[in-house]
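2024-03-11 09:14:02 DEBUG pipeline.ingest accepted 1 chain
2024-03-11 09:14:02 DEBUG pipeline.ingest length=151
2024-03-11 09:14:03 DEBUG pipeline.predict start
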Amino acid sequence: MRLAAYQPDIAPNLGAMIRLSACFGVPLDIIEPCGFPLSIKSLKRSAMDYADIADLTRHDSWTSFASAPRSGRIVLMTTRAEQSLWDFEFQQGDTILMGRESAGVPQTVHDFVDAGVKLPMFGQARSLNVAMSAGMAVSEALRQTHKGSKL
């Protein structure tokens, strides 16, 4: 199981995903450019010292990430999906892709991924914080597969 952040806009959210990655033993792909200078200093408050123990891979572009070898599917978390996180069947080797906080991902990314999954929302609610959504998706994926992490 892997987690990927597409051009994150907000350093504290990426820091929280780095911490999530470290705590669950799930590698994190960071797809640049970011909306902030990507440095340990910019992430220090939210990632704390977890950046030192997380398995991070930086990709300088979507093209670089998309062409990198992988063992499984890319599953996009998106409000545009029809299928609920609770009904989706994750597989070992899946990469859960999180979009930008401000704009999600472009259509070219939607067209590239293997699946789109949403978190069902109550009433008029549109979306949760991207790091919170990532935590829920990673947790559900690991629950289903019981494998793929260093736990």
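2024-03-11 09:14:41 DEBUG pipeline.report Residues 45 and 91 are 33 Å apart (CA to CA).
2024-03-11 09:14:41 DEBUG pipeline.predict end
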